[in-house]
Specification:
Elements lengths: L3 E7 L4 E3 L17 E4 L6 E4 L1 H10 L3 E7 H7 L11 E5 L14 E4 L2 H12 L3 E5 L2 H8 L5 E6 L8 E2 L15 E4 L4 E6 L4
Parallel strand pairs: 1-8, 1-9, 5-6, 5-8, 6-7
Antiparallel strand pairs: 2-10, 3-4, 9-12, 11-12
Length: about 200
Amino acid sequence: MGSVIASAVVSLDGFVADLEDGVGPLFDWYGNGPVQVYGTDPGRPFQVSQASADYMNETWPNISACIIGRRLFDITNGWNGVPAVGDHVFVVTHEPPTDWPFPDAPFTFVNGIEEAVAQAKTHSGDRDISITGGNLTGQALAAGLVDEIAYNLAPVVLGTGRKFFGDYAGAQVLLDNPRVIEGDRVTHLHYKVTKS
């Protein structure tokens, strides 16, 4: 069975976006390097440092499914039906879209994080699942569903915004020592959740 990995680019003070969902300098590292890396979409290259490219090329191909919330789905228009990474996207929402112009895209709309993780695990088999940072990450962490955390730390303090763990108010969660990869304008911190 693959791992469930909570992942996002995060500011030094723990935000994945500002209050208007802007990412500002958080994503600068996606375009500041000499090495081209692709997720699922061949029309969406990333230009990153060699260290970041090595990390992305090691982790991204293992991801089969992504779990996102309705907010990210709406902001990106579901990346026009092409998953950013992996081959399937599970969107957690109480109201699936009725007029989305990509009905045959590999997107499944589900009601709740537990259902999303269960369906993603069935789909993914022994490959990994990525949960986008924000309220979903907090919900998954509180439910004990997260195996690893990929915290891509950008050198910026946003001051306010949308938190990586959303409104998490659950029990304390211990993490193993991180694997640390220093990129250009990003530090990749990859943790395993300590299992008792």
